[in-house]
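Morning run. Coffee first, then this:
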Amino acid sequence: MRYAEVLADSNLLPAQYRKNPANVLLAQELGDALGIPAIQAINSIHVIEGKPSAGADLMASIVRRAGHRLRIIEGQDRDGPTVTAQLIRSDDPDFTFTSTWTMAQAKAAKLTGKDNWVKYPKSMLRARAIMEVCRAGASEAMY
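And here it is:
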């Protein structure tokens, strides 16, 4: 707990952890469960609407570390960028899990008005596709 208290005093931490040692401790515990160092957990586990969630890059690295293959394919349609994530499990290489995110889907989900979606639409589509395919195809790696 003392370690979490000292870290929480740092202004170099993401906002959800500053001055909040309980959140730091929770991220450390989640990192331990995922087999990643505390500092990686603090920087890669985001608190979204009060719930801790692994970021897309963390999910991708955990899934790849588990031996699965993850491919990201960027494209374009009439509404803008598209991103497709494909996951091929190491124990079932003949099946491909696929998730595609488009700007039309993001608009339908009422995501496009948010600041990060306005500034970085392709990155946000990429994150959505990765998280969706990892949860569908390799949920055991995430627990």
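The chain has eight helices and five strands. Good start to the day.
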